[in-house]
Amino acid sequence: VQLVESGGGSAQAGGSLTLACEISGFTDSRYCMGWFRQAPGKEREGVATINILGTPTYAESVKGRFTISKDVAKNTLYLQMSSLKPEDTAMYYCARSVYIPCAVDTVAAEDNSRGRGTQVTVS
Description:
Number of helices: 0
Structural class: mainly beta
Low-confidence stretches: none
Radius of gyration: 13 Å
Helix content: under 10%
Largest sheet: 7 strands, mixed
Number of strands: 11
Mean pLDDT: 95
Shape: globular
Order of helices and strands: EEEEEEEEEEE
């Protein structure tokens, strides 16, 4: 299992960024996939998940601003982020969740496979 995030960087408040997670070692269509984030000194926070049917769920803090999607042909997971706020600043991780149901409450759990993360900084 390998998850490699990209697309992070710096953005101004109100701006947009799109994160990508390249997946290898398994087919993402068969698993609950998602994103979580962690800011310095704070706990992990589930951001979004997408289940095997393609149904998304979002944390209240990002609902209406972030969109999770997946390209099955490319085996890639995406997180489109818009209307960014300074409080969105964090390291963002792609994860494969082993939990049922597929939910933001569990996507950040320690026993899920995750990538090394990509930094997002909003000022």
